[in-house]
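User: Just a sanity check before I run the rest of the batch. Below are the structure tokens for the first item. I only need the designed sequence back.
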């Protein structure tokens, strides 16, 4: 657990496949960086089966999620915002924003915050209080608006107006990034291409994306490329050169440098550690 004085704490976990039950405790939000297929879960007496790609969001309200038959290795980051921060940003209305559990939801804002925290953990680079506080405020404000039902204008610190992308535009960008990565299209995710996907100028798009999601478009694309690379390293025997090309980073030396900078180890060492 990494506890801070800036409104947030988090836990990074790697769990092997398992048939027995495990819990996601109440009042937390997080990201499953690993993909899962037909995992079984139970929450508030309701059972279900879920399949989702790496980078999906899992969150709980008042009840835990009970998982079973998890056939893939799990890498996840659990985030625990300070209830006092939630109360303050909501104007005293809430101490936790989720009204129901989230299982395998795609949410670029939560993913971006979780990726920043994970990078700090796996590389050993500590975040200063300013960076951690900014991440905590962005996450909590987003949760209050998108899952707590509060109007954006009433939540402290929520950007509004022309500096912010709509939820529809953010979803369109995420869909575009995922579809392009699925196709292994090298060079298909430039700023101009992303901006055109939502009919904005590159300058306006870059500013609005950073204000909405919390990372630059380039950083978000890099996060998704390396997340996809981790899954391929873990689940296939493809050579590193082919994996680099599959995620749109045809220059294998550049791929290795990015991978080391964000994971603290080489692709080969990561593969040997997780298999």
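Assistant: Here's the designed sequence for the first item:
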């Amino acid at each position: 657990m990494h506890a801070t004085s800036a409104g947030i704490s988090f836990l990074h976990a790697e769990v092997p496949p398992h048939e027995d039950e495990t819990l996601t405790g109440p009042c937390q939000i997080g990201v499953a960086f690993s993909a899962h297929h037909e995992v079984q879960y139970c929450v508030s007496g309701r059972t279900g089966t879920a399949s989702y790609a790496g980078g999906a969001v899992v969150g709980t309200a008042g009840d835990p999620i009970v998982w079973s038959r998890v056939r893939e290795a799990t890498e996840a980051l659990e985030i625990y915002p300070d209830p006092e921060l939630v109360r303050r940003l909501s104007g005293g209305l809430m101490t936790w924003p989720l009204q129901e559990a989230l299982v395998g939801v795609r949410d670029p804002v939560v993913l971006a915050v979780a990726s920043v925290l994970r990078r700090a953990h796996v590389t050993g680079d500590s975040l200063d209080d300013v960076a951690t506080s900014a991440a905590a405020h962005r996450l909590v404000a987003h949760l209050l608006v998108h899952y707590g039902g509060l109007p954006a204008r009433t939540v402290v610190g929520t950007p509004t107006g022309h500096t912010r992308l709509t939820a529809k535009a953010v979803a369109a960008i995420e869909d575009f990034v995922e579809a392009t990565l699925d196709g292994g299209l090298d060079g298909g995710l430039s700023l101009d291409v992303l901006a055109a996907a939502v009919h904005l100028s590159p300058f306006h798009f870059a500013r609005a994306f950073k204000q909405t999601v919390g990372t630059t478009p380039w950083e978000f694309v890099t996060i998704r490329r390396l997340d996809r690379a981790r899954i391929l390293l873990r689940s296939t025997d493809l050579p590193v050169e082919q994996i680099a090309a599959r995620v749109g980073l045809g220059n294998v030396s550049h791929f290795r440098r990015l991978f080391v900078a964000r994971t603290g180890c080489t692709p080969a060492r990561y593969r040997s550690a997780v298999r």
